[in-house]
């Protein structure tokens, strides 16, 4: 009986301690379904909580975001699979800090103050005894830190890493050490280098990660398409948006590329002939919000096989987004089959509504209406001026047939203005001309009268009464009478 009472007391004490520990943690953080959320709690050290509760040992998702953590020390054993330490002030991480997190798959260290020196290769070591055992971490986020370059062996413990994000770091160039570090990730499938001030890629950077499928190079300083992209043989998705490229004349061969993003490019004004002719399996093309893009060559996507055949071939594009550019015309030869498109967005362009674009009204507008009517909200004419703002879909509903340019390429919108101008000119010219004629006639009559008088005064055949009145003839008459 005594032993039973002692055991009961010990059990009560143990339960009380556990409940007390859990209450301390869960009063500070949010605890629900193996998820611990300690976001914005003013924490300076994770271990302050870890020492008070066993709940953390069984949690699978942990969020310690938006705190004041500066130093990450070695963490106790846990079953955590996802650990987020984003938006802290971390500038130091102890070696083997995560070695006890055997099941850790995703680690988010973004928006901190990490540098190349902060990322000692041994930080990511998982098993100190068996150095041949690869780490379990597959997703690592290091975006928006202060990383200018990487040490060559930064990722030596992460041979299974599938996704790496370095976006928002001031890399500027990918030096040899950084290139070596990235090349040591043979299983890498996703690489994000957006907003890193890059203007070129090393030639063989993408050769070693032979399974790379997704690459983000957006918001950088590339002025031309890097030819090193042809090393990414398995690449399926490429985001090259927000780069200051003016003209796209050719893309390197990427035999597996299915999705291409070329949006928000402030200088892009032209996509030339055969620009994408080496992207033969392209399925999605997103080219939007390029304010200077006025033309896309009709042959931009078409290609010919190397067997001497003259026939044109096109990739089977199923999603085409050309919204919010400066396009005035769209050639029907751009794609081989428009009816197989699953998505088509042509909103927000400067469409010229003449007979050349009649197929936009008759073919594309009803097709978009049947599949994605929300893409027609800003699908309107900009020219001619009398049609500005008119919905192209409304033109289809009215079975409207648009006018063509005349022989001299005069715009139809100017015809009305020209005719009105001519009519006003004629109306004003008639009274003006009549007034001039009347003035001239009146002046002519006056001049004729004076001219006649003048001529009569000078004529030798003037009447006798006029001769007699003039003194010049009087002496002559006197002399005559004398004889």
From TrEMBL:
Keywords: Leucine-rich repeat, Membrane, Repeat, Signal, Transmembrane, Transmembrane helix
SUPFAM superfamilies: L domain-like
One of the Pfam families matching this protein, by short name: LRR_1
GO CC terms: plasma membrane
Presence of keyword Transmembrane: yes
TM helices/strands, residue ranges: 417-441
Protein name: Uncharacterized protein
Native organism taxonomy: Eukaryota, Metazoa, Ecdysozoa, Arthropoda, Hexapoda
């Amino acid at each position: 009986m005594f032993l039973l009472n002692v055991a009961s007391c010990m059990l009560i004490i143990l339960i009380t301690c556990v409940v007390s520990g859990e209450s301390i943690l869960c009063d500070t953080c949010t605890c629900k379904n193996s998820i611990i959320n300690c976001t914005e709690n003013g924490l300076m050290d994770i271990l302050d909580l870890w020492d008070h509760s066993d709940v953390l040992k069984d949690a699978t998702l942990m969020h310690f975001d938006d705190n004041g953590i500066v130093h990450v020390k070695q963490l106790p054993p846990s079953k955590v699979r996802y650990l987020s330490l984003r938006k802290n002030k971390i500038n130091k991480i102890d070696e083997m800090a995560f070695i006890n997190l055997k099941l850790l798959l995703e680690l988010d260290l973004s928006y901190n103050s990490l540098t190349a020196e902060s990322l000692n290769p041994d930080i990511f070591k998982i098993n100190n005894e068996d150095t041949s055992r690869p780490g379990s971490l597959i997703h690592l986020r290091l975006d928006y830190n202060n990383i200018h370059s990487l040490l060559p062996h930064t990722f030596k413990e992460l041979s299974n890493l599938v996704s790496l994000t370095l976006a928002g770091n001031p890399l500027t160039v990918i030096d040899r050490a950084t290139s070596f570090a990235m090349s040591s990730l043979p299983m890498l499938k996703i690489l994000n280098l957006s907003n890193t001030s890059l203007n070129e890629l090393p030639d063989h950077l993408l050769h070693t990660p032979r399974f790379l499928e997704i690459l983000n190079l957006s918001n950088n300083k590339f002025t031309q398409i890097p030819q090193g992209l042809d090393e990414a043989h398995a690449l399926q998705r490429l985001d090259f948006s927000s780069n200051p490229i003016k003209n796209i004349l050719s893309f390197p061969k990427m035999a597996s590329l299915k999705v291409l993003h070329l949006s928000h490019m402030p200088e892009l004004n032209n996509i030339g002939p055969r620009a994408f002719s080496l992207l033969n399996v392209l399925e999605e093309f997103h080219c939007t919000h390029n304010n200077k893009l006025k033309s896309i060559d009709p042959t931009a996507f078409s290609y010919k096989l190397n067997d001497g055949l003259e026939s044109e071939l096109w990739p089977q594009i199923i999603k085409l987004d050309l919204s919010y550019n400066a396009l005035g015309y769209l050639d029907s030869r751009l794609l081989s089959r428009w009816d197989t498109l699953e998505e088509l967005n042509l909103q927000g362009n400067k469409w010229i509504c003449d007979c050349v674009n009649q197929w936009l009204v008759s073919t594309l507008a009803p097709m978009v209406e049947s599949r994605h009517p929300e893409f027609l909200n800003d699908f309107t004419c900009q020219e001619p001026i009398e049609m500005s703002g008119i919905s192209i879909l409304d033109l289809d509903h009215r079975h409207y047939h648009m006018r063509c340019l005349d022989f001299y390429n005069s715009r139809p919108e100017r015809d009305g203005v020209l005719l009105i101008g001519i009519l006003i000119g004629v109306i004003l010219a008639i009274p003006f001309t009549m007034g001039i004629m009347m003035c001239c006639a009146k002046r002519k009559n006056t001049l004729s009268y004076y001219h006649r008088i003048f001529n009569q005064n000078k004529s030798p055949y003037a009447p006798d009464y006029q001769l007699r009145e003039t003194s010049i003839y009087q002496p002559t008459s006197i002399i005559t009478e004398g004889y």
